[in-house]
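note to self — DONT lose this again. spent like an hour looking for the file last time. sequence + predicted structure for the chain T wanted, 328 res
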Amino acid sequence: IVAALAVTMITIDDSFRQMFTLDQTETYLDVDLVMSYDANSTTRIMNKRTITEDYADRFSFFASFFNFYAGIGIGEELTYAQVMSSSVAEMERVIRTDLPSLAAGTAVVTRTFAEEHDLAAGDAFDLYVGGTAYPHRIEAVADDVGLFKGDVVFVNKTALLDLIYGASNLGNLGNTLYFALRPGVDIQETIDLLSAEPEYSSFVFTEVVNAADIARMATFNSSIFLGIGLMAIIALILVLRSVFPILFRDIAPQIGVIQTLGGSDRFAFRVWLWEFAIILLFAVPLGLLIAWVGINLSRPFIGIQGFVTLDPLLTLIAVGAVSYTHLA
């Protein structure tokens, strides 16, 4: 247990970095960069035409979405959900999932949303925008994946905007753009170029996997964990010291006792080797397994599917520290 706590404490910062990275990559999948708005943006609607004409060679794909939160009326019930809207082809590319064609007044909902409200394909609901209810029918229920998870409803963007505003050919407009960069394209250079465009200068660019941001979050969380873990180790050592005092006797007094009883130095060395072998072959692997399982048990709380691995170098340092502390 001490070995497990030591390995966990020493590798926890790297483990948090892996978790936060997995959370981003599993949510955004192939997307590398997001352009959207914040409270300081002078406008909340962007046109992707300039990107299509001048910067398309930088991206393997880019998708224009109009996303918002809205009231959803299901019979007598009123709930809220995120509404994602784009072309079906763009949505399929962003979430790597095949979807049916969507006409005006039809939608795809996540399985989470459908199960929560007992909905199925063919059921109807009202989409409230600006206080007006727009009847919709569920075309399909899709598994939660990537950005399309939780309480989310997807509709065809041009059909929705035509329904709301009575205007067609608005496919270039949106409030969020998702980009997947081509291999070798520098993301910061791309952000600088797009930010220099007057029509995009007030928008916010977010790198999906930002190493600096992930490092800050990992350091913050690991510092809290280290404080708790250190107290746990001290408490555990005090308990073990009182229950199994022989485990905490120094090797030198043990060798002295063996020599006093007539044992040779060679025999004492063999005793030391056996102690080291027991720790190396049993305690350490068990500690590593407990540490790995313990760290990965937190995955469902963060919402990630991938497994976190123990950094080999940090694990070796932890094992060495535990072995030295016990055998010194």
